[in-house]
């Protein structure tokens, strides 16, 4: 009996060539709808599926392959005598190859102006049923969902008129990945229209952007996946203009720089090292902003990442080129800037046109051993009116710097504090288990430049010791969440030293 292949694909690239070679190898081909028409027009002998099912396509194509003559031919075990007898008695012919890819649900939901009805009609039913059946019976059936695999299958068929069990298992694995991804997109769509943020069962859909050389350390394997949907303004949507491929740490650090940058509207530069800011500056132009970010920590910026929210021009490019920078990120670059920056072969240049875009629906996720923590992204800077908790009110200049410092503190790892002067960080203390240690580090890093500076803390002060340290160093204005049981003691210490302290009523822990 001539072996049979069932071919029904939405994405038809390479299918005529594949089917033609299959026919040359003596295979009989069954097909449906548009695929049948294309193969027939190409002069390939093909049987229409309803001639096999003995039943026409109905309900506008919703039912065409859901039939025992199809699924029986796919699912019966070739080594089971009872299965063989049943198939023979029912006059069902074997189907040994299935080639299928599904209705374009992903492309449909991305389309501007698409209706709910159009989306529903692009939920494939027959396709997933058919390829899952074939994949379940991979011991006997070859199933292809990716055109990249056509050549692998043809090569083996030409050599032995069959495929190896290793190849069939590989193809089955791809099917179940494919259908799981497809169903996840559908479930996520329904979660969205039902406004369900945390569903009873959580499934995630990501696509490989690239395999990485290694993870955080050389002994760790890694890959970079991108979310489905909006990626503009993110590292996943960046266009690399120059340099070798990004590493795991490059991507993580770059994401931290972009995330920190998104809270600033004025010309701003963020310098990052090991996923933490080592300098943030805002100014009238990007050159002034870069100078402030650079001056905060001239050593740590070396080998770091610099992200800017304005076009990088020749002047800024020259200053960047005076030290070693791993990655430069900006919404655009002048031709001269690119010419200057590319003088260094090891630098990576990333263009993210919508770098200030803040309209993201995705959740924040952190993997833990045996589980996954899921939360809203921390996108709310302030949620209530600021409260001046002390007797002294801030000056206009202090208030401007306090708000800048609050934005900067949101970007550092907890416990984190930031000392700011003239819209530029001058001392950053971060990642400490004791808040007073973070304060000490920030004071030390600010050095003699600390006079006239202000401080922001991502969490409240549990004791007055940090206030004592700040007063001794010359800091007279502080912004913090408030909410400690020791708030009264902390406020009294500030009042005693004629300091101003503002409570925000919101914290920004970052772990």
From TrEMBL:
SMART domains: AICARFT_IMPCHas (SM00798), MGS (SM00851). The keyword Kinase does not apply. The IMP cyclohydrolase activity resides in the N-terminal region. GO terms for molecular function: IMP cyclohydrolase activity; phosphoribosylaminoimidazolecarboxamide formyltransferase activity. It comes from the Bacteria. The lineage of its organism: Bacteria, Bacillati, Bacillota, Tissierellia, Tissierellales. PANTHER family: BIFUNCTIONAL PURINE BIOSYNTHESIS PROTEIN ATIC, BIFUNCTIONAL PURINE BIOSYNTHESIS PROTEIN PURH. This is Bifunctional purine biosynthesis protein PurH. PROSITE patterns: MGS. Belongs to the PurH family. It holds the Pfam family AICARFT_IMPCHas.
